[in-house]
Design a protein that fits this description.
Blueprint: H1 10-21, E1 51-55, H2 65-68, E2 76-78, E3 83-90, E4 93-102, H3 113-119, E5 125-128, H4 130-136, E6 142-147, E7 154-158, H5 169-175, E8 179-180, H6 187-193, E9 202-203, H7 211-215, E10 220-224, H8 228-234, E11 244-247, E12 259-263, H9 267-290, H10 293-304, H11 314-326, H12 343-359, H13 370-373
Parallel strand pairs: 1-4, 1-5, 8-9, 8-10
Antiparallel strand pairs: 2-3, 3-4, 5-12, 6-12, 7-10, 7-11
């Protein structure tokens, strides 16, 4: 799912490019640190690939924070290839392999993560949403081994001054006003199938710029709770006031966001690695929930070292992390385990999206079920907070 650009920043980005170009290459690398080795049971050398490659859905943000929590000091940002590489650490200790985090979105030509995983077999893990995995199941099947978020941060937002009578997405549907989204989104079809908006309201002209919303506040627009509400109030100077919004999850949109996936045909090959690595991702998620501050700073630094990316400031990072944590979008699932899945919920997601996707021409296997889409095999059930 394509995520909109989170910041205006076109002029600011141009200035940043110029400033960064004047700096030496050393500006992209943090100081090397001698790390204590992790305990034997957390050593990944010889078990995992020598470099564990993680493909993000979009530019680095704190909604992928637990992945950055595994990135140790001495990391290097490669702006030419939109990737960051450093030691893979757990509790600050070296696991013996490297971690490479690759940006998505524009960096991969706006391709989906499942398609990128099949184009580039060097990718170990890819972040995706449940509906993306369902859509890809016929030709590019992936299996989720854990998840960073337990609920989707997807919102529809509107101007409360223009529409004081809008209290929910259902009110938007009743109004008949345009719902502006970017092309390729799947959630608008879900809203139509639920009878919450009408098909002729969907406007796929969203180009990631705030200009349309600023010029015509009569529309509703897509967004993410950890981005747009803060950005429009504090960073879009032509707006500079609060927006109103509703989370889709509050309407029964159950999709998991930021699931951590492997190619379905690589589960067996990666099994020894996943048995050790997945609990580390869970632990990193728990640490992020407890205190996102160190990861916030790391993500801000990574973005600052890549002039191709829109600026991502400390206040936005802090606000975004708190929106995810305080809003309950991160945390233990129904079984009490962080990074786990509720399999009946996964099946409901499949049951809802398969008809929508098939109506659009997607080839979804008849055998697709919750145990195909996700696995709880590698989870550490003791990671509960």
């Amino acid at each position: 799912m394509r995520k909109p650009l989170r910041r205006l920043g076109f002029a600011a980005a141009a200035l940043l490019v110029a400033a960064t170009a004047a700096c030496s290459d050393d500006a992209t690398e943090t100081a090397a640190v001698a790390l204590e080795p992790a305990p034997a049971e957390q050593q990944l050398a010889g078990v995992c690939p020598s470099t564990v490659v993680v493909q993000l859905q979009w530019s680095p943000e704190t909604d992928s924070g637990p992945i950055f929590g595994l990135l140790g000091p001495g990391y290097k940002v490669d702006p030419d290839n939109n990737k960051t590489t450093g030691p893979l650490v757990i509790n600050g200790k070296d696991t013996g392999v490297k971690l490479e985090i690759r940006a998505g979105g524009a960096a991969i030509g706006f391709q989906t993560v499942p398609s990128q995983m099949y184009v580039d077999p060097s990718i170990t893990l890819g972040l995706a949403h449940s509906e993306q995995a369902i859509a890809a199941a016929g030709t590019q099947p992936i299996t989720a081994v854990t998840t960073l978020l337990r609920n989707s941060p997807q919102i529809l937002m509107w101007d409360p001054k223009t529409h004081p009578d809008w209290k929910s997405i259902a009110d938007i549907g009743k109004s008949g006003k345009p719902v502006v989204v970017s092309k390729g989104q799947l959630f608008p079809d879900w809203l139509v199938a639920r009878g919450l908006i009408k098909k002729d309201q969907i406007d796929v002209s969203y180009d990631s710029s705030p200009s349309r919303f600023v010029a015509d506040p009569s529309i509703a627009q897509q967004g993410f709770v950890n981005d747009e509400p803060f950005i429009y109030e504090h960073e879009v100077k032509a707006w500079n006031k609060p927006v109103a919004y509703q989370l889709l999850k509050d309407l029964g949109y159950e999709n998991y966001a930021r699931t951590v996936n492997v190619r379905a045909d690589k589960v067996a090959e990666l099994r020894p690695c996943l048995k050790k690595l997945v609990p580390m991702i869970q632990q990193s998620t728990a640490a992020f929930i407890a205190d996102p501050t160190p990861v916030d700073a790391k993500v801000v630094d990574v973005v600052a070292k890549n002039p191709k990316m829109s600026p991502y400031g400390a206040e936005l990072a802090k606000s975004g992390s708190r929106a995810l944590i305080d809003g309950g979008l991160m945390g233990p699932d129904t079984d009490g385990v962080i990074g786990s899945f509720d399999e009946p919920r996964v099946q409901r997601i499949i049951d809802e999206f398969v008809p929508i996707l098939r109506a659009g021409g997607a080839n979804i296997p008849a055998t697709l079920d919750a145990k195909t889409l996700v696995t709880k095999e590698f989870l550490d059930t003791t990671v509960t907070k």
